[in-house]
Queue: 2 jobs
Job 1
Amino acid sequence: CFHYLQQVFVEDVQHLVDSGCGDKFFCKVQDILHKHAQINKGNDDETIARNLKAFNVHRNVNCKEVLRGMTPAGNEILIPKLLDHLKHCIQQIAFRGLEESNLEYGPNHQSCCPNMKTPPAATEFANLWYPL
């Protein structure tokens, strides 16, 4: 039995992981997965990209602005490695809490959840990878 295994390479984001998993990282991964989902309709990448977009919107991050002028890294990695980077950064957010990280989220946080350390979107997003 022969199986055709399609290996998909995407832009490497290691430098964005190394610089602290900030807005550029989450916007870039959203962009990469959105483009990949357009080619391969109905896969998990589409769902992850949609959740990343919701996460970024909740924090009032304008990804078009964040990514403006950003040049491609030049290196490529496989999609599973990209998802490993995403998992790592989600763990960092969940571990540190958004207030201690370099991620910023919008003014809606204090008005909706003044006693919460981590806004709901971060918790929900982290739970996609690590359900309690």
Job 2
Amino acid sequence: MNIFLAVVNSILPKLLILIDLEGGSLLNLYICLDRCGAAAAGDGSKAGVVADYGAMLKGDKLVLRGLKFHGYHGVKPEERKLGQKFLIDVDAWMDLRASGNSDRLSDTISYTDIYGIVKEVMEGAPHNLLESVAQLIASRILSKYPPISAVRVQVGKPHVAVHGPVDYLGVEIIRYRDIDIQT
């Protein structure tokens, strides 16, 4: 099933978003800025498609899981004074064929460089919201590394005062270079 969302405004007067759904699950997301007729007609040609985000998120990626930091982010005074543990996951989508073929670090982005960005944000100036922390991490990664086309950042708090057992509570954002890059 295809869902079409046409957005008309002064900035992007011919924006069309085509969403492919199957059984309620997102299969693909296409963004068109002009000549979207073929994509909208469903003829498979996707003429005018600017970005195929579904395909982008199915490609190669660098993966950083279970990064642990002590930081002072949060709204409550005790979070700012005592700090707390945070768990971070990062996926960075980029083409890894060159490094896969060459076996050279110079043909990719080092995990430790991305880790360094996360560490700098997590152990740096405090933010009230995890959304702000995740956004800053994503923005810095996309700004520093042009080969990365999209980044997913998950920030979790494992020790949250709720009435029930949890592994963690947090946020997850996905940012795309061509529409979300912000410094």
